[in-house]
Amino acid sequence: MQIYRAEEVIIFQGVFDPTQISLLWLIIFLAFIIMQLFPNIPLNWMTLRTLSKIADRLRVLNEFDIRGRKTLAEQLKKYGGNVEKMNEYVQEIVEYFDIGPVERDPYGILNRLEYMLDLSRYRFKSILKTYAPNADEESLSTLENTAAVANILHLINKIGRHYYNLAKKFKNFYIAQQIEFIMPLLIDLAKNYYKALPATTQQIPIGDAIGPMVIANMFKKYGVKEVVDVGNEMIMGEALFENRRLLLLKAKGPAGRVGKPGAAVRQLVESYKELIKVIITIDAASKLEGEETGSIAQGIGAAIGDPGPEKFKIEEAALTYRIPLIAIIIKQGFNEAISPMLKQIATKVDEVIDKVEKLVREMVPEGGIALIVGIGNTLGVGNGA
Amino acid sequence: MSLREIAETFKEIANMKPLSLLKCPVCGESVERSYKEGEYVTKTVEDKCPKCSNPMYVKLIYVNIPPQQPS
């Protein structure tokens, strides 16, 4: 802003004669009166301006949605989907939803939640199997990931459009402002989910796969030749480390699965009881802004980001036999957890293994057992043997 | 995020090249190369170790891009 000196102001005033200056003041005064009498005029103008900015960004969300649907359609075609009915199939998949259990009566809510989650996955997979008849069990799990991403991209687009239309319908500046504020977050979220699409179609590990990746590398390091299917889409390998037994658990790969680690842990704890001296869970965890991607931290508890049932089972199993529950987390942004694995995260695998070994030496006496669980989506991570 | 940035994002995603880090189970030598479709972590691949010529396995798969900044 330019600052005028006093003499310049006097010269400037000299340009206009007193009548013109009075007229100028009158115009300003009238504008002020009009704005007082019709306060909606500037507000409506601002609303329209905000809505026009949002409309531009909505086109971006729509583009992500379209591309997500297109990728899903290509995948369905690849596995024998009917080309003529493809739009109908894709629409049904992206509109799929599940309703959570009632929370007003919390009694038995985790059982009901687990049932709903199982049912939802089963139903979603059945729909995909119907529309992609040539997909085998492995491909179906990966296809499920692609479909889930397309479903979320569609949901994000719908949310943005809903608030835009709401603000437009009621000409409400404040709703328009809210959606304007939230729009960069929605676009960022959509962008990162979109980044997960090539990972699911090409079977590249995502950031969340760091837990299973650690376990797979432990299989290799300790020469695990055979892994056993322990049910619930989980596999277990057994290794010997400095006269201690390691039970290494992860979801069955390399397709995109998370399995039910809680159920598997409970089952193993029931089998080995007090012989298990420690349960170590390894998972990707959300970092706070400013924290370094790939930094490792250690604490207690079950490192698992499920809606509740699996975490509950791990805690319950540990409590029953008073087994220490140690958590190792590899920090990353939510966006990084759903995008293809970054080098900064992947290269932490050996460091995590060192930490696990140190913990085992410290907490498990010779002849004892350590149960080590890699939590997360095992997309692109094999079973070691 | 502007429309131009979005176009760049689509371009960036299209050009995102995953890498495989191969490791020799015998001598521990590591080699980084482009990811080939169908590979997964722990899979034994056809590539031979440049030091001892033993078959290598996929130790890690990742993309080498800087961590994301908020938009």
Rg of chain B, Å, rounded: 16 Å
CATH H level of the largest domain in chain A: which superfamily? Peptidyl-tRNA hydrolase
Number of domains of chain A: 2
Widest sheet: strand ordering of chain B: 2-1-4-3
Distance between the termini of chain A: 70 Å
Q: SSE order of chain A in H/E notation? A: HHHHHHHHEEEHEEHEHHHE
Which percent bin holds the helix content of chain A?
Answer: 55-70%
The largest pleated sheet of chain A is described as: 7 strands, mixed
Number of beta strands of chain B: 4
Strand order of the largest sheet of chain A: 1-2-3-7-4-6-5
Low-confidence stretches of chain A: none
Name given to the CATH architecture of the largest domain in chain A: 3-Layer(aba) Sandwich
Contiguous low-pLDDT stretches of chain B (5 residues minimum) are none
**Beta-strand content bin of chain B:** 35-45%
Number of helices of chain B: 1
From the alpha carbons, calculate the radius of gyration of chain A and give it in angstroms: 29 Å
Shape of chain A: elongated
Order of helices and strands of chain B: HEEEE
Helical amount of chain B: 10-25%
Instruction: Categorize the overall geometry of chain B.
Output: elongated
Q: What is the count of helical runs of chain A?
A: 13
Polypeptide structure, described:
The complex is a heterodimer of chains A (385) and B (71). In chain A, 58% of the residues lie in helices and 13% in strands. With 385 residues, chain A is of the alpha/beta class. The model of chain A has no long low-confidence stretch (mean pLDDT 91). Chain A has 13 helices and seven strands. Chain A has a seven-stranded mixed β-sheet with strand order 1-2-3-7-4-6-5, sandwiched between helices. Chain A has two domains: 40-202, no CATH class; 207-374, Rossmann fold (3-Layer(aba) Sandwich). The longest helix of chain A is centred in the first third of the chain and has 39 residues, at 40-78. Chain B starts with a helix and ends in an 8-residue tail after the last strand. In chain B, strand 3 and strand 4 (55-63) form a beta hairpin. Chain B is 17% helix and 35% strand. Chain B has one helix at 3-14; strands at residues 18-23, 30-34, 44-48, 55-63. A four-stranded antiparallel β-sheet of chain B has the order 2-1-4-3, with no helix packed on it. Chain B contains one helix and four strands, in the order αββββ. Chain B is elongated and about 50 Å long. With 71 residues, chain B is an alpha+beta fold. The mean pLDDT of chain B is 86. The chains are: A alpha/beta (385), B alpha+beta (71). Chains A and B meet through helix 3, helix 7, helix 8 and helix 12 of A and helix 1, strand 1 and strand 4 of B.
